[in-house]
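User: Can you help me understand a structure? I only have the sequence.
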Amino acid sequence: MTNPSLLILPGDGIGPEVMAEVRKIIGWIGDKRGVTFDVSEDLVGGAAYDKHGVPLADQTMAKAQEVDAVLLGAVGGPKYDELDFSVKPERGLLRLRKEMDLYSNLRPAQCFDALADFSSLKKDIVSGLDIMIVRELTSGVYFGEPRGIFEEGNERVGINTQRYTESEIERGARSAFELAMKRDKRLCSMEKANVMESGILWREVVTRVGKEYPEVALSHMYADNGAMQLVRAPKQFDVIYTDNLFGDILSDCAAMLTGSLGMLPSASLGAPMANGRPKALYEPVHGSAPDIAGEGKANPCACILSFAMALRYSFDMGEEATRLETAVEKVLADGIRTGDLLNDEGVTPVSTSAMGDAIITALDASL
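Assistant: Let's start by predicting it. Here is the structure, written out as tokens:
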């Protein structure tokens, strides 16, 4: 048996700092659980542009296609704001998603009890929240053609095209239904079938796929109402399936219900490879936070929890994923926090590294 392989792309800003804490976890699993990962590292985003003149080198893209999973930190920063759109750091991430055909984006929104007071909503509304948003990731308005800025008469016009095929909707729907089967067996599909033909097709396809999963209670909701319901009564949802644009917006809305972007992981999955594992990219939801980069203030939990998702979805190590998630929850419950998770004056936040060390200690205690 070969070791599971992982490509690490720390990226920009706080990416390298939070990724260093994930490496501690990987080392712990090797030392204490007997599973050794073949880890390689490369550049993405601004870091790749600085060295190669592109946000993702071809050789890095080739590596990503060969490994069992990719773990990415963050990309971007103000020093790259003036770059041409084609070479902005974010294009490296979009290339990974598109060429690996990562069509199913999993964005959990879970509110740990210790952090319920950090939500912008009342504690009783978010306490115990556990939602999974499945966002179709490789089609829709972000990729549709025609697109661009054109001259029309005496003014410019910006054009983006919302385009979905039945097969693109269907494969994402199956991913969402399979997840729902492992959770509370409830799925809400969100679109705008009242004003968009793509929404009409979306609803028809999801309804058809739903007949193959009779145990899952399927409901439909317009995406604008979905945004309102997420901040009114979020615990009514279990799994939400939606398109690329609405998923981008709704998942960020759900993210803030939990209190901090520094706590939120994500997974982007594609079709199974020859070894049965899905093409996969894992990344924290937060950005590169250039204002605190290099200061040891970053919260590594989202990146660590992204690795926990990799353990569960890529490496069939669900028990170890749960162990890691529980360790993070234990550390938070003990009051060990980075600066983004403090609301009491006079309490000193721990550093990025100290947070990682505390999670290792909690893992040791779990054995």
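Now, to help you interpret it: The two ends are 25 Å apart (CA to CA). The chain is about 40% helix and 20% strand. Let me know which part you'd like to focus on.
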